[in-house]
Design brief:
This protein has 292 residues and is α/β, with parallel strands linked by helices. The chain has a seven-stranded parallel β-sheet with strand order 1-2-3-6-7-8-9. A two-stranded antiparallel ribbon has the order 4-5. Helix 9 links the parallel strand 6 and strand 7. It contains twelve helices and nine strands. The structure holds flavin mononucleotide. Flavin mononucleotide (FMN) binds next to helix 12.
Length: 292
């Protein structure tokens, strides 16, 4: 949806700089094609469990077969959030042709020529794809997943297992008890529930409550290297980035993603230098100023 170069462009940048990349169940590149595009990448697969569990099991098998080392199970999307803007903007598959879309075409001819002359956009892992993304989520995903599903996944997947979308200390502890190697404190970038707890605020308590072997990641609003360092100071093992790299992808394809990652790396270095810290291990809560 962002750029015709798609996930392979992002994966190649991640491969180059040595960070993992998580391919979504809703990706427009298949599990296998991504592995071919970036063979040296540390590949993670983000799984949504569907009502058809057999299909979920197949996806896990395919990820295993294509050398993915981590499954991220996203649990904050039992149903789609109210995404009014997607409806208003006609963000559907296929896109709606409204008078506004036609005006947009006239204003951005290069973008539209590119869209119409490159391979048509489609989900690679799902076949039932009519309507908005929210329509799709509500039709295909299972709104009733429980800890029993996590147990099942743990028993079928021997690689790293990460649960994404954790929003309370208790839930973090529960999924860790049920075999998660890591949690991602996340509210889906604020795309699901407007008033969900803020990951950055619960981070120190989650870190304290979990066994040190369980890693705690955080995402949501990491738009600069300073944001990433602040999360590390508060106890995160690492951060996830969504929109920041997508902006780069939209602006400049693979080179745009590379530029964003270079900026993030530079900002991390500058922030650490200004803090007088020479290693991530030396970062701590004393390095962050929080509002009272
Ligand atoms: C366009 C878009 C699509 C997303 N699709 C998924 C998805 O398919 N699965 C998922 O677990 N999270 C998805 N997310 C949420 C991201 O994984 C991540 O939690 C969020 O973007 C982090 O916040 P940030 O964008 O502020 O960095 C999506 C986010 C965006 C912006």
């Amino acid at each position: 949806m962002m750029h015709y170069a798609g996930e392979p462009a992002v994966a190649r940048v991640a491969e180059r700089i040595g960070v993992p990349y998580g391919l979504s169940t809703l990706g427009t590149t298949s599990i296998e094609d991504l592995a071919t595009a970036a063979p040296g990448l540390r590949r993670w697969f983000q799984l949504y469990l569907m009502t058809d569990r057999v299909y979920g099991a197949e996806l896990v098998e395919r990820a295993k077969g294509s050398g993915y080392d981590t499954i991220i199970l996203t649990v904050d999307t039992p149903v789609a959030g109210r995404r009014h803007r997607d409806v208003r903007n006609g963000l559907t598959i296929p896109p709606q042709l409204t008078p506004r879309t036609l005006v947009d075409m006239a204003l951005h001819p290069r973008w539209w020529v590119n869209l119409l002359t490159t391979e048509p956009l489609s989900f690679a892992t799902l076949t039932s794809t009519e309507g908005t993304v929210a329509d799709l989520i509500d039709r295909v995903f299972d709104p009733g997943i429980t800890l029993a599903d996590l147990d099942w996944l743990r028993s079928t997947w021997s690689g790293k297992l990460v649960v994404k979308g954790i929003q309370t200390v208790d839930d973090a502890a529960l999924v860790a008890e049920h075999g998660a190697d890591a949690v991602i404190l996340s509210t889906h970038g604020g795309r699901q529930l407007e008033r969900a707890p803020i990951p950055f605020e619960i981070l120190p308590r989650v870190r304290e409550a979990l066994d040190p072997r369980v890693e705690v990641f955080l995402d949501g609003g990491i738009l600069s290297g300073a944001d990433a360092v602040a999360a590390l100071c508060q106890g995160a093992t690492a951060v996830g980035v969504g929109r920041a790299y997508l902006y780069g992808l939209m602006a400049g394809g693979e080179a745009g993603v590379q530029r964003v990652l270079d900026l993030l790396a530079d900002e991390i270095t500058t922030t650490m230098a200004l803090l007088g810290r020479t290693s991530v291990a030396a970062l701590g809560p004393e390095c962050v100023r929080l509002r009272d």
